[in-house]
Amino acid sequence: GQIYWAKDIIFLVNEHDLLGMEAWLEAYHDVNLTEVRSSGTLGRAGAIQAALSLELSSDVVTSFDVAVEGLNGQLPNLDLLNLFHAFCQKNGLLCTIQGKLPRSDWDSLPAFAHSLQTLLLMVLAQASGQPRGDHGLFLRYRIEAITLRGINSFRQYKYDMTTVGKTLEGMFRKLNNLLERLHQSYFFYLLPSLSRFVSIGVYMPAFGFLILVLVLKISFWVALPFPSPPCPLPTDPPSLTPLFPQESRPGLLVLVPPLLICHAAGLALYFLPVLGQHVATQHFPVSESEAVVLTVIAIYVAGMALPHNTHRVLAGGGSDRGWMTLKLLALLYLAVQLGCLALLNFSLGFLLAATMVPAAA
């Protein structure tokens, strides 16, 4: 009956956690991404603008902890998070991120350490690729969503369910005022706190310097002159042959076997755990989680059981020049893959680059 409600509101209560939410989203959008069977939705309300996932463990709430990490490292629009933070500040509600209380002394060393710890916790959560709530599945359908968890740990603050209702109503009213899609704000960011963020223009140069190490390594190897074998002296008898035969340039066919082996191993690691899970659960008395672990162990043991002369195949035909060419190709391949991965999930790309680049260089 209020004139400011110009949008429909869907109240959704699901079971089986993420499975139930994914089944409802697929039925609502009439798609089938995960082959989850559902009986369909009871009705539709048009395109969904935003979603708020509410998780309450008690009827007494002392603070709200907000979760933003979605599936495969996706993040909601920063405006949605700013709306929640501004509403909490206006109404005196205590809100946290990564379970960390906000600090007021931002210029002190403990505050910097607190912000760094919060930032690293977000990087680890985003790099895992797992959604930290039901909101993470909405981001796949380009629906801006966050998860609000009611925490009952800080006894000095206590709110009843009326405050929770006012919070949801305030958030929906703020969303109702946004007549256009959220597109003017950031989709790539890191959060040391709710009141501050690190944009993509600040943290991407750090990743760029790591990739620059691989590029410099490639340019150094390319510029390094390869030692040519000594030629026989003119005074030597013509019947004598040189002890060091001239080494021919490696062809592209030499690099095909190691690339095929690497990609075959990647496909095996991608498909065999799922296939092994079905086979193991049908023929052996093990659970599904145990079947996946046993399959991965079997793949690892099979990799160790490869014949020892495999390095001759991987060495680019057994020549030093072929081995160096294969190294250059591997470094270039690694740099391109890490760069593409950082654009999709920066945290995962950065953690992989921080561990793989020193070893590769």
Per-chain topology:
Blueprint: H1 18-29, E1 50-56, E2 63-67, H2 78-91, E3 95-97, H3 109-128, H4 135-138, E4 144-151, H5 161-177, E5 189-190, E6 198-199, H6 200-223, H7 252-283, H8 288-304, H9 310-314, H10 320-344, H11 346-360
Parallel strand pairs: 1-4, 2-3
Antiparallel strand pairs: 2-4, 5-6
Helix pairs in contact: 2-5, 3-11, 6-10, 6-11, 7-8, 10-11
Can you give a write-up of this model?
By secondary structure, this protein is an alpha/beta fold. It folds into two domains: 17-194, no CATH class; 204-225 and 252-360, no CATH class. The protein has eleven helices and six strands. The protein has helices spanning 18-29, 78-91, 109-128, 135-138, 161-177, 200-223, 252-283, 288-304, 310-314, 320-344, 346-360; strands spanning 50-56, 63-67, 95-97, 144-151, 189-190, 198-199. The strands form two sheets. Strands 1-4-2-3 form a four-stranded mixed β-sheet. Strands 5-6 form a two-stranded antiparallel sheet. A hairpin with a 7-residue loop joins strand 5 and strand 6 (198-199). The protein is globular. The termini are far apart. The model is unreliable at 240-245 (pLDDT under 50).
Oligomer: single chain
> Based on CA inertia axes, which overall geometry fits?
globular
Q: Give a count of the beta strands, DSSP E runs of length 2 or more.
A: 6
Domain tally:
2
Q: What low-confidence regions span 5 or more consecutive residues with pLDDT below 50?
A: 240-245
GO biological process, one term: attachment of GPI anchor to protein
Pfam family, one: Gaa1
Protein name: GPAA1 protein
Keywords: Membrane, Transmembrane, Transmembrane helix
